[in-house]
Amino acid sequence: MDLDVKTLSLFASLFIAWSALLVGIIKWLVDRAVSSIEHRFTRNENEHKSLRKAHEELEKDYRSFLTQLPVMYVQREDWIRFATAIDAKLDRLWDRLVNTWGKKTDA
Fold it and tell me: Residue 64: inside a domain, yes or no?
C-alpha cells in the first residue's frame, strides 16, 4: 500500500473540508439553540413583569379590602346583641299596640 503525496493531500483536504462542514453545522445548531433560549428568556421576562404588575394590583386590592373589612363585617356577637335589642323594641311596641287597641275595644 503505497500512498503518494497527492493521495495523502487529497485525503487530508477532504478530511479538513468535512471537519469544517461539521464545525459549521455545529456552530449553526448552537447559534440556533442560543437564539431560541434568548427568545424564551425575553418572553419569560415580559410575562414575569406582567405577572408582577398583576400581583401588585391584587395585593393593593387585598390591602384595601382589609382596611374596609371592619366597616363591612359584623361580628356574630354584635349581630346577636343588635337583633336582641330590635326584638325587645318590637315586643314593647307590640305590647303598646295591644294595650291601646285593647282599651279602645273595651270602651
Answer: yes
d(CA 43, CA 21): 33
CA 71 centroid distance within chain: 28
Decide: helix, strand or coil at residue 58.
helix
Q: How many domains does the chain have?
A: 1
Collect all residues with Cβ–Cβ distance below 8 Å to 74 and sequence separation of at least 6: 82
Look at residue 62 and tell me if it is in a domain.
yes
Could you report the average pLDDT of every consecutive run of 10 residues in the chain (107 residues)? 83 96 98 97 96 96 89 81 95 91 64
User: For the whole model, what pTM was predicted?
Assistant: 0.47
- Residue in this structure with the C-alpha cell 363585617, named with its chain if needed: 73
Q: Does 37 reside within a domain?
A: yes
Question: How does DSSP assign 6-35, residue by residue?
Answer: HHHHHHHHHHHHHHHHHHHHHHHHHHHHHH
Cell numbers that stand for 21 in this block: 462542514
Range of the domain at 32: 5-74
